Amino acid sequence: MRQRSTLRLCLAGSLLLTAVVGGASAAPSKNEWNAAGAAQFLDQRLTWWRAWPKAERDHGTHCISCHTALPIALARPILRQSLGQAAPTSAEQAMYADITKRVAMWREVDTFYTDQRNGLPKSSEARAVEAVLNALFLVARDNAAGRQMAGDTRQAFANMWPLQMQTGDLKGGFAWLTFKLEPWESESATYWGAALAAVAVADAPEGYARTPEIAKNVDALRAYLRTGLGGNHSLFTHMLVLWADARLHGILEPAQRQAILYQLLAVQSTDGGWSLARLSTWQRIDGTVIPDVSDGFATAIVTLALKDSGVPVTDAPIKAARAWMIGHQDPKTGALPATSINKLRDPSADAYLFMTDAATGFATLALTDAKPSH
Question: Which backbone phi and psi does 110 adopt, to 5 degrees?
Fold first, then answer.
């Protein structure tokens, strides 16, 4: 993999970081990720999401979400392959039917949120979010089918690129929904959106990322992601830039990449996981404190970024993180539990499992060596 020698120089520091990460002592209750359990949990969650009244949108379609539908779209093909399942579930098929319908009716469908109902500038934010997610979901579908880029996937990208910002602080990036909800709907979530756009472009079949017609767009996207290293951006944002660079390449210099890797390794907990509290200075809206303990989502997304960046899965930090995720997978539900960044949520609340949805999906990605087929 690219920059493997540089990464090994950096990760030779694993020996020096033994006191921090190499001595993980928490013994997992099992030594394998329960793929069948994770698949069952994610399938149930997608079925629930599509039945949730708040997810309903116009023309009989449904909203797609970063917390639930996205990790399922990325992880479910891997689980299907490992379990020997032949076809997507009925809920997945219905989700993709909604997406292709909305891609085809792009100028006719309402945005997921509108200025009239939700205040300015929600229409433009929601349109950009949907455009990026549509492209990423359809790329994942095409790769899972092992085929060339479908016409609706090309149309999704054709819908996405005109929404790329041309001026201002967001130049090269995309507007993103801001509801003061971390990590997906906040002011800093524009880097989450840009990282997802980078992954969509990089993973698209037929070498789409190298297409001359989009060269300026891709360069602008890289340039925007680089801005995530300046100012007061959090380690979580740095991690997103690292993940985007691992997929799209050409964003970070070797020294920048090495610095982010070291920063992430330095805050790994002694039990092998990562805590949300160490990735940013997030403040909960209810005044409660985010516990500084290892969390399913934090551990899954950081491990995925490290693995995609070339950190060998045999190195102590990744082995410890994998052991933590496997050991904390709920044996009854198949889920990897995670905690809300925004408030201490009631277990009966609809949003209680959103972070767990993301943790379970991204853990599946972090625990597999599969790569998108092109």
Answer: -70, 155
